[in-house]
Amino acid sequence: MRIGFALGGGAGLGWAHIGVVQALMEEGIEANIVTGTSIGSIVGACVAADMLDELEEIARELTFKEMLSLGEFGFGSGSLIGAGKIERRLRDHFGFLTIEGMPKPFAAVAADLYTGERVVFDEGDVVTAIRASSAVPGVLPPVETSRMLLADGGMVDPIPVAAARDLGADFIIAVDLQGDYEGRARRYGLSPHSPKNSKALNTARAGWSMALQALSRARLDLDRPDVVITPQIGHIDMVDFTKADDLIALGKKAAFDELPTILSRLNSHEQRVG
Q1: Are 231 and 16 in contact (CB under 8 A)?
Q2: Is 152 annotated in the active site?
C-alpha cells in the first residue's frame, strides 16, 4: 500500500505539520508520497527529501527579528515583501535539488493568476515549485513563466489530496490547518460571551478565516481522503512563524488523537485490497 500525506496551507501554522509527520512516523506510518500547498509544500518537500529534522531545527530557532530580516519591504515587485532573501534561504536548504531527484514522489500545488487554474509541480526545480506554491498574492511576488503567473495554491486547492492520488497514493492522510475556525474566532474576540463591539479588523479576519475553512471543507468533501487530521491551532496567529514549539506539540497531539481511526481504516483498506 502506498500511503500519501497531503499537507495543507496555513502560513505560520505549518509548523504543526512537522509534529503530525513525526507522530505518524513514531507509529510506523510513513509516507510513500507527499504533496503540499503553500507552507505545506515547504514541509512536504522536506519530508520527501528526508530533511525534516533540519527544518524542525530552523523552525524552533526562528525569532521575530529573523522573520523581519527575511523581508525586503516595498511594492516594486507587486508585493509587500520581496522574495530574494527567502529564495536564498531555500537554496541554502535544498540547493538545486529536483523533484525527480527526491527519495519520495512529491508535488506542490500553485495557482495561475492568469487563468485561475490549479497547477501541479511534480517535476523540476524544488525551490521554484515551493516558491510558486507559497507566494501569497500581495505579500510575496508570484513566480512568472512564459505562460503563467503562479501564486499560492491555497486559493484553488488548500489541501492537495487529488495530487497525492494522481501520484499513486492508495491511502491518503490529509492535514487541515484551517479546520479550527472556532478557536480562531475566539482569538478574534468573537464568541457568545465576548463584548458585542468587536473591531472591524477582527470581524474581517474572522470572515477571511471562515472562507478559508469553507474552501478546505469543500475540497475535502470533493477529494475524499481516507483520514483528516485537524490540529486545534486556531488560537495561534497564522502570520506568526515563531510558535514552532507549540505548533509541533499540537500537531503531534492531533495525530495521536486520530491514530485509532488511522489504524482501523488502514486495516480495513488492506483487507479490501487483499
Answers
A1: yes
A2: yes
Among residues 179, 158, 70, the alpha carbon closest in space to that of 108 is found at: 158
pLDDT in tens, 226-243: 999 999 999 998 888 889
Angle in degrees, CA 259, 263, 59, rounded to 5: 40
Instruction: Indicate the pTM of the whole model.
Output: 0.89
Average pLDDT, the chain: 88
Catalytic member of 38, 79, 134, 216: 38
41, 134, 152, 209: the catalytic one is 152
Report how far apart, in Å, the C-alpha atoms of 61 and of each of 43, 123, 244, 245, 253 are: 16, 31, 8, 9, 21
Calculate the alpha carbon distances from 194 to 15, 26, 32, 205 in Å: 29, 41, 46, 16
38 has catalytic annotation? yes
